[in-house]
Amino acid sequence: MSLFLVIFFLLACIVVWFIWNREVWKTPTQKFPEQWRKILHQEVLYYAALNKGQKSLFESKVHEFLLNHTIKGVKTKVELLDRLLIASSAVIPIFSFPEWRYTNLKEVILYPSSFNKQFQGGKPDSNIRGLVGYGFMEGKMLLSKRALREGFQNYSDKRNTAIHEFVHLVDKMDGAVDGFPDVLVQHQYSIPWLELMHTKIEEIDKNYSDIDQYGATSKIEFFAVASEYFFERPDLLSKKHPKLYETLENIFKQDMQSMQLKKKRVDIGRNQPCYCGSGKKFKHCHL
Ligand SMILES: [Zn+2]
Question: Is the pLDDT of residue 155 over 80?
C-alpha cells in the first residue's frame, strides 16, 4: 500500500512539474498602445499601406509576437523601435496566415552591428548581419541592430535583413531549410518553384540579374533574398521577374503589387518630442 502511495505521489509531482513548465502561448489582452501604432505608421511602410481592418490584425500579430518571444541586446540597448521592427519583420511574411506561430523561435538576440562566427563585432571577418541558430543555438535568431534599422530606413535597395531571417524560419518550419517551405508551397507549384530557382540562380551567376549576388549562394539563400525583393520592391520584381513575382505571390498569398508602399509625411513639429518615445526632440531623433 505504502509503495502504491509513493508511486502515486511521484506521478503527481511529475504531472505538476509538466503543468508548471508548460509553455503557454499568450494572446494580447491589453489594447495596442497608441505610441506603438505611431511608430509602425512612421517606420514600417508595409503597415502604413494596410487598410484599417488589416492594420488591426497586423497590430495584434505584432503584439502576440512580442508577448511570446524574448528580445535581448548584447552590448546594445533594445529600444521600442527595435522591438517593433523585429516583430514587423516576423509578421510581414506570414501575414496571410493568421494562425501562424513561430514555434521554432524562442529568442532574438540583437548585436550593435555585423558580427563574425564567434559573435564578435569590429573584426575583419565581422560580416554577418543576421542568422538563424542551429544546434546549441536552436531557437535563437541573431540580428545586427544596424542592419535591422537599415532594412526599414532604406526601402529601395531590395534588402531587409530581418525579413530575410524570418523567411529562413518559415522555410525551417517543416524541419528542413532548403528554400522550399513545404508549409506554404502548394503541391502544384513545387516542381515549377524548384526549376525557377535553378534558372534564376543561373542568371545571377552569369551576371544577367539584378537580384543580389548572395541569392546565388544556394536555394536556401535564393528564397530569402528573393523574398526581401518581393516585400520591398514588388513593382520592380514583377516588371523584371514576372514569373518569380507570381510564384512568390502564390507562396506568401500576398498581392504585394496592390499595396502603396510609400513613405508618409510626418505630421509633427521639429521641436516636439519624437513619436518613437526616445524623449528627444523630433529634429534630433527621427527627422
Ligand atoms: Zn540567409
Answer: yes
